[in-house]
Amino acid sequence: MLSPDQPMTDVVTSLALMLVVAIAVRQDLVEHQIPNVLTIGALGAGLLVQSVFGGLNGFLNALAGAGVGLACLLPLYLGKGMGAGDVKLMGAVGAFLGPVNAFLAAALALVFGAVLAVAIVVWRLVESRAAVSDSGSGHGVTAGASPTAMSAVRKERFPYAIAIGLGAIVMLWLRGT
Q1: Of 9, 46, 58, 157, which is most buried by a Cβ count within 10 Å?
Q2: pTM for this structure?
Q3: Helix count and strand count (H, E) for the chain
Q4: What whole-number distance in Å separates Cα of residue 160 and Cα of residue 86?
Q5: Sign of CA pseudo-dihedral 152, 154, 155, 161
Q6: 163-166: long-range contacts at Cβ-Cβ below 8 A with a sequence spacing of 24 or more?
Q7: CB-facing half-sphere around the CA of 57: CA atoms within 13 A
Q8: Which helix (H) or strand (E) holds 1?
């Protein structure tokens, strides 16, 4: 059963989370990093909002959500496939969503991230092939990308905050807030 303040909790939580995600995406696009002040502040805000509306249970739920969010992306960071800011952002998102929704948002973020990665790789390869074609080498668009271009694409970093933000927003939508 929903308590009388449940809709306000959902509204405040959703708006705060969307603000955090929007700032993180902007920072990731512009600076290619998510600052600690944002992720730590967002974690604190998630813990605070959940505590205000849910008391000790809300705080513990937020703490568990942050742990799940961190745990879901930490292996990618350890494997050098993701930056620490992305992992901390997912932890902060988890504080707003709670453990079950944090897990689902992380799963969605991984799917969106994979799609984004494939799109970026395809875009870069098309660009490199167009550059080869424009240089008059005669190989045209059907030629494979150069080893140098392939190496550059493999090392390219992309703004994973977009995928995390999409995962969080879809999770909010799925839960009806």
Answers
A1: 46
A2: 0.82
A3: 6, 0
A4: 7
A5: positive
A6: 163/109, 163/110, 163/112, 163/113, 163/116, 164/21, 164/24, 164/86, 164/89, 164/90, 164/93, 164/105, 164/109, 164/113, 165/21, 165/22, 165/24, 165/25, 166/108, 166/109, 166/112
A7: 2
A8: none
Q: What are the residues whose beta carbons fall under 8 Å from the beta carbon of 16, sequence distance 6 or more?
A: 45, 46, 49, 96
Read off the tokens for 112: 């969106």
CA nearest to 169, candidates 110, 108, 99, 118: 108
Please state, in angstroms and as integers, the Cα–Cα distance from residue 16 to each residue in 9, 93, 101, 133, following that order: 11, 10, 16, 48
For 44-74, the pLDDT digits (tens) are 999 999 999 999 999 999 999 999 999 999 9
**Per-residue pLDDT tens over the stretch 145-173:** 556 555 555 566 789 999 999 999 999 99
Alpha carbon of residue 144 to chain centroid: 32
Whole-angstrom Cα distance, residue 169 to residue 177?
Answer: 9
What H or E segment, with its residue span, contains residue 144?
none
Q: Which two tokens stand for residue 86?
A: 């992305």
Cβ atoms < 10 Å from Cβ of 92: 32
